[in-house]
Amino acid sequence: MAAPLEIYTTSNPQQQETLRSKAKKVQKVTPRLVRLAEQMLETMREANGVGLAAPQVGVLQRLFVAELPADEEQNLPRETYILFNPQIVKAQGEQIGTEGCLSIPGYVGEVARFQQVTVKGLDERGQPVRHKVEGYLARVFQHEIDHLDGVLYTDRLTDPSTFRPVEVGQEEGEELASAMV
Ligand code: NI
């Protein structure tokens, strides 16, 4: 297994500039980009994340990965997503919940998102795909697509006072816990 990629954080000025840049449309899903997506998945799992966008590893291309862990109680396998050029084509409803970000370690905040989104894009074979997702997964997709436009969840806080420190490594746990409620 390849070494995990470095996750860019906003506390590093140069990395912050990348995180704040708009990513370019992927012209072709090449084996190299698919390999990058796989490395991103490994990196994300290592960091206990549920989503990771290419700018977070310093690549300004429109690509994100996401993964929901298996639900043993419900006997559901893990769900893995690799999406190139993702675009929200339909959105409805609203949900408010706590978010964290691997690029902003040690903090969480409250963000309003659509409850349900339909996202189209290309899969790892370069084939058009469409995912209709809701709830927690819809939140993850919206958060990752924001990354591709240089937008961070801290830009979308329902109120600045909801932005608060948590123990590093607990950002996602907080997110998951709140999204499960
Ligand atoms: Ni993030």
Q: Keywords, please?
A:
181 residues; alpha+beta; five-stranded antiparallel beta sheet; three-stranded antiparallel beta sheet; 8 strands; 29% strand; disordered C terminus; binds nickel (II) ion
Structural account:
This protein is an alpha+beta fold. The radius of gyration is 15 Å and the shape is globular. The protein has four helices and eight strands. Mean pLDDT is 92; it is low at 176-181. Residues 101-103, 143, 147 line the site of nickel (II) ion.
Q: What's the helix and strand layout?
A:
Blueprint: H1 13-19, H2 31-46, E1 51-53, E2 63-68, E3 79-92, E4 95-100, E5 107-113, E6 116-122, E7 128-134, H3 135-148, E8 164-165, H4 171-180
Antiparallel strand pairs: 1-2, 2-3, 3-6, 4-5, 5-8, 6-7
Bound molecules: nickel (II) ion (NI).
